[in-house]
Specification:
The chain is α/β, with parallel strands linked by helices and about 200 residues long. The chain has nine helices and six strands. The chain folds into two domains: about 50 residues, no CATH class; about 140 residues, CBS-domain (Roll), CATH 3.10.580.10. The strands form two sheets. It has a three-stranded mixed β-sheet with strand order 1-2-3, with helices on one face. It has a three-stranded mixed β-sheet with strand order 4-5-6. It starts with a helix and ends with a helix.
Amino acid sequence: MAILELTGSARVLLPGMAAVIPALLVARSVFGQDPIFVAILRGRGMDYRFDPVAALLDRTGVAAAMNRRFAIVDRAASPAQWEQALATAPDWLLVADGDAIGAILQPPAPAAAQDGRSRDRSEARSAVDSGETAGLAEAAQRESGPFATVSPHATLGETLRRLDAAGARLALVCSGETARVGEVFGVVERRDIDANVGYRV
């Protein structure tokens, strides 16, 4: 089609195909080179192949996989303050060092939540004993694993690239470049992105 558009004559189609197709086969099979058009695209950081999963990731916002059930507690908080944070039944605890978020912890599931009784999640969380609270406080004192930060306007594809760059499995969705108290909108886990894409593909 490109030959036809450039020349405006259908008579050059067969000669053009006779020249282009053997040249493509020789370049790829003998010299192991990609076509010049593909090489230019790759040189510009673009991929010519269509990947439906990558396309879905790049058109889905991070809010689709974001978990908003989190609580923020200061690293130097008292056991009573830890218990108060756990009483809100969070999926994630964000440990703050002053105004900055320094660690992300996942609260333990209390045994009361697994005994089959009809207690809601908030009541089960409030049943966490002082030993588990002390364990969380000690875990907060240790070095936390790395986490990434992403904008609330980012796509899932951008979030995955940030996670890969940081070598992390968790990302905080926040309005600033760094995670600070009052600027966090939610937590994204890598498996939540995988689950979201797998459900929609």
